[in-house]
């Protein structure tokens, strides 16, 4: 059982009394406490070769759960890997400034979709100025810093090239330059502030920084970056292996410092630690990873045309191996087992 879930189970009553939990946090707690227990239900497995049977508790499937969604992350990585092109990729990171983080904490359902919409339109507009076709990129929302504080930002993996569908031509682009980061930051600030002012449920504070941060850098092939993004996409904010000490009143976890690349430790009171994690529960229905341009879901034919232009025919036909189906081996005869039924409590 996950150490975080056990902490949550032991302190759930005190947590509800001390903090005002929103509905998304309550749903997440309800799912995590039922995960892999009799309350969630079970699956029954039968060996294909001998009479041996096994009963396994079901997982909750919540995307915040630290012990679920491994297969979902593998499937997302496989789908994105099948879209990779033999070109240089760029990582563009749009960061929300510190002064707007309270707004993200109180209105994530409204603010996070605005971040996706504004950042995507900025990249499309910058590409349109160069009149070289359409971009393809994938946006992934991260809400935490290395210390697990609230730090909303978008990682956007951009293929270094553009496709002109009218000419059926691929423009390769430069290997070390996509767009000017300072220009992106200025437009990011102006458009986000305008979008927040026009939204009926959002309002700005009086102290807005004059400079916002956008990072734009080449990352080479796209696969290592996709693996990094998938690591936090469908699983909990903090792996159990990073929780290094639990006492009666405090929890200590480790994190890797971004400047020194060394491990550091942070100790918090138990309830404060739980709220530090729960503030990253996303609103129900919010899509955390989104594809745009020729990578979008309804542009498979367009992506296939680009792959035909860029990839060798044999590589295109072979494709990428999909993740294997979950299997279970019989402890008696070592043959494979099959699921013969799922039971859930009323």
UniProtKB/TrEMBL annotation:
Which domain of life does this protein belong to? Bacteria
Q: Name one Pfam family in it.
A: Zn_Tnp_IS91
List each copy of the Transposase zinc-binding domain by range: 9-96
Coiled coil stretches, renumbered? none
**Ranges annotated as spanning the membrane:** none
* InterPro entries associated with the record: Transposase_32, Zn_Tnp
User: Where do the Transposase IS801/IS1294 domain residues begin and end?
Assistant: 136-296
Which protein is depicted? Transposase
| Annotated source species | Motilimonas cestriensis
